[in-house]
Write a structure and sequence with these properties.
Layout (H helix, E strand, L loop, with lengths): L18 E7 L3 H12 L4 E4 L14 E2 L10 H25 L10 E5 L2 H16 L5 E4 H7 L9 E5 L3 E2 L2 H14 L3 E3 L3 E7 L2 E7 L4 E9 L20 E11 L11 E6 L2 E7 L4 E5 L13 H14 L8 E11 L6 E4 L5 E5 L9 H14 L36
Parallel strand pairs: 1-2, 1-11, 2-8, 4-13, 11-18
Antiparallel strand pairs: 3-7, 4-6, 5-6, 9-10, 10-11, 12-15, 12-16, 13-14, 14-15, 17-18
Helix pairs in contact: 1-5, 1-7, 2-5, 2-7
Bound molecules: glycine.
Amino acid sequence: MHSRTTPRTAEVSGPPRTTADVLVVGGGIIGLVTAWRAAQRGLATAVVDPAPGGGAAQVAAGMLAAVTELHYGEQTLLGLNVASAERYPAFAAELTEATGQDLGYRACGTLAVALDADDRAHLRELHALQRQSGLTSEWLTGRECRRLEPMLAPGVRGGLRVDGDHQVDPRRLAAALLVACERAGVVFHRDWAERLSVVGSRATGVVLADGTELSGGVTVLAAGSLSGRLAGVPEGVLPPVRPVKGQVLRLTVPRSHAPFLSRTVRAVVRGSHVYLVPRENGELVVGATSEELGWDTTVTAGGVYELLRDAHELVPGITELPLTETRAGLRPGSPDNAPLLGPTALDGLHLATGHYRNGVLLTPITGDVMAHALETGELPAEARPFTPRRFGTLSPATATAPATPRLSEQLA
Ligand code: GLY
């Protein structure tokens, strides 16, 4: 696609444009960063979402945990995660400059601790894997951990200090991206996309719930966990994403208790990840469960109990803090835990989805990768392993549109 340089403003008068160079389905952080970067490159861009700026970012804790969330077998994803983490300072500065909004980006580091001998052995293995992968982390004794974070439980057996794993406030990130998009002239259609329009063997846009037909030179499906449910997308092209529920708590550290924690503290307790992310404004985010329960977003007594129980084992003083919010969101899981980025086997349809546990971390690089793909039709080298074609089985010419429930039927 060739870029246009037509100047655009946020104050679109009259009915919204129904044609765009780039039509982004989904206005979460991934859809918004794609739209912002596309608009910056002169592409006439529109976003379809009934409530842009929402989605999983409203629940996420915002850890930028490329090093502490490293897993065996995910070295390729690690490269993308690290590259995105490296872009965060400049990305945050640019977004703040464009919008006047602070993102709560904090280069505060992370401490992953062990509570018993099994956890300690597990963390030692993680440390070895990090070193083999060329990552920087430092092994600390329990005493050294408590010297860094005095609120830690006396029983902490040791830990890994990772100064390079930072944090951002995902709600502020989403709000800033929304403003950045508006200022860059992105048009918003505040409605559900009902169906992808396909003419011959090419995607040509979407039909909205109110019947409006929007046409796009390229349609980008960036609807998070819902991306696999857009009607009209041929079977072989439909992204294999699934919802993975995460329950998250928010507590408030009163000024009298500050500083409570100075960095993100995390552990694996009885096989479950628990993390505590302290913000400068006193918010303390505790997450997260990981549940394969379809579209359920109920906050359960069991989920809250387990998070508080595990967090209390790490930091006993947490039970004194006011509990201010409980919420559940849906991560867009993919078969290999990595995102699907760029062109699909269906001409005119790109994907930006499947970011699973790393949506906030991967926001900067996703914007850059998608803008490149939209301009050139090709993924940049660093993103080629994440082509959606790695999962495709059918050619679009032979594929039929599946009888899936509509996108708009998925969330009450
Ligand atoms: N990356 C943290 C989570 O998905 O819970």
